Structure formats: structure tokens, C-alpha cells
Amino acid sequence: MLGDLGAEVIKVEHPVRGDDTRAWGPPFAKYTPESGLEGPGESAYYLSVNRNKKSLALSFQDPAGVEILHKLAKESDVLVENYLPGSLKKYGLDYDTIRELNPNLIYVSITGYGQTGPDSHRAGYDVMVEAEYGLMHITGSRVGPPVKVGVAITDLTTGLYACNQVLGAIIRRGKTLKGDRIDVSLSDAQTASLSNIASSCLISGERDSGRWGTAHPSIVPYRAFKTKDGDILLGGGNDRLFGILSEGVGHPEWKVDPKFVTNAQRVANREELEERIEKITRQKTTDEWLAVFAGKGMPYAPINDVQTALNLPHTLARNMVIEMEHPACGTIKMVNTPMKFTNSKADARTPPPLLGQHTDEVLREELGMTAEEIQALREKGVIR
């Protein structure tokens, strides 16, 4: 996100294996014959989150590597690390050491459980935090087991919070001329993301109401219904919208039925009403129902697979799928940034880098190192 907004981002990777996500495949974007590279290619997972970055392949287990990072830290606005608390101290890359080198630096630590607290020593992964911090308990069908979200949503929300905190710290630094340390964790981000469900538990003092599938615990009808060939989400979120739904399915009398006339009564008679609706929706295809409700002002949506979603006319019209020229894989398709401005621009300027693609460039242009110095580091195995 920071890269999309125009920041120069230097990604520091292990000089041999690189970022772990480089191996998280298939699928891979295959190398072109002209690239001269061997192997399966660049993983789709890695490609999804690494555009607008320069790859510096460097080992900081060697003092020479630490020295390079110290020099980069002196010149940088922001440093982001995601190691267990205390892990970087032995390398001299901890906050206290770096702050002495550059008091204006914004030092961002992203961890599973934060820098403090009884669980701060634990390694954190999205699926574990989803489980431990309530999300799995409220995700899944009403009578089914808990399930994880289809993407690593806790990782993503944590990244969003981290980005917001960085931007906030930059604004604050402009006023105070002081850097900062940012402590952002998956556990905190997931707790905050429970939003109204957490608030309900805190106010009532009771357990949450469990899993609701596509339904809503306090709004009826507001869920997916089976059609002849798939599923459609219908949102009768208030009495007016329920009236539109009732007319659409051919039962306008439901609007005045004492069992359904208000949302509270519809919630009380949820099973009966939803069974009636689904009995009708099964009689037509999803496209037929979309045509019925088009332009009526009631929320509705088909449940699409991801490939379909990526090729929707609206997705393409909003420029959310783009093509980029990768140096070793040729033309690749990527999801674009959702950030849009009127008077400025966020965009994908450069494709995700190959491992160590910019090592020489960064050392030469950012630190002023000579070709001989760079080659000596490469022969020593400090860089790639």
C-alpha cells in the first residue's frame, strides 16, 4: 500500500531462499525461455503483495550485512520488521539501537501478539489468531463447524492498521520532528475487527450468538437463498425493503402478515419465512432473480466464484485488474490497488521483483558503494 502511494520500498530478503512466500505455490507464473532462469517461476502468492518494491538480497547474520542495514536505516523514513520481540537485538537491529542511529525513523514491529503481554513471545499466524480471537467461532454455517475466512483476513487487517499507523506517524513527525515506534499485532487487529459483535458481548455480558452462515443474527431476511442453479443474497433489511422482496417473490401479502410485518416479528419467525422464500427462489435461476430485483432499490447479489468476480464488467470498468510486464515471466495479470484519488494517484509502477534484483542498485545509489565493494560482499555470501 505504501508503495502504491509512491513510497520507495526496499524489501530485505534472505540471499538464498528469499521471502518464504516465493515458494508458496502452485500456481506459479512460469519463467519465459528468454529469462534464462530455472525453476517453477514466481508464485502467485508472492506476486500478489510485492509490487512497487526493490529486492535487496542480504544476510544480516554477517556484521557486514548489519552495517548495510544500519546505513539504510540512517537514510530511511520507515523500517518495518516482523520478528518475535527481542529477536533482532543480537544483530543490533532492535528499536533502541536503530533509534540512536536515526531518531526521526518510524520503526514498525508487526507480530502475532505484540511487544507486551503474556503471549508476546508466541509466533503468530493468521489461522491461529482467527481461531483464538473469536473470528472462527462466528464464521461458518449455523449448524456446522467453525471455519476460517477464505483469505488470510487477519493478516490483511493487520497490514491495513500498520499502514494507517505509519501514515499517522509521518503526519505527527511533520509537526513534532520526532520518530516513533509502532507496535501492531494480529491479536489486537483481530480483536478490533470483531466490531459490533464484540460490542454486543461487552454490553450484554453474554457469549456471542455463534455462527450464522450468510444470515444476520438480528435482521431477517438477510442471507443467501438457493436458486435453480446457484445462490443469491437478498437483503430485506427494513420494512420497506422487505416489501420489495415480498413483491418480487410474488407474495405482497407478506408485507401485512402479522408474523412478518416488522423486523422483530420476522426474526421471531425466521425459520418459517426463510423456508418460504427459498422454496420460491429455487424455482428460477440466479440470473432470472437478478433480473427480477434489478433497479428495485433492494440489496441483492449473486454468490460468484473468484474468477467470475475478477471478470465482472464492473471490476474491469473500475480498472481493478491490470497487466504488468514482469522481467522474467512476461505479461502477468494482477489485482490493482483500490485507492483512487481525484488530484493524485496511487498505482502499480513496477512489478514484484526477482530475488536480489535491485541489490546492486540499492547499494550503489543509496549507499554509494563501488562495484568492487559490492562484488566483495557477494563473494563473501553477504549479498546476492
From TrEMBL:
Matches recorded under InterPro entries: CoA-transferase_III_domain, CoA-Trfase_fam_III, CoA-Trfase_III_dom3_sf, CoA-Trfase_III_dom_1_sf
Superkingdom of source: Eukaryota
Keyword annotations: Transferase
Membrane-spanning residues: none
Name assigned to this protein: Related to alpha-methylacyl-coa racemase
Record's GO cellular component terms: mitochondrion
Similarity section: Belongs to the CoA-transferase III family.
Organism, as annotated: Cephalotrichum gorgonifer
Molecular function terms from GO: succinate-hydroxymethylglutarate CoA-transferase activity
Pfam families: CoA_transf_3 (PF02515)
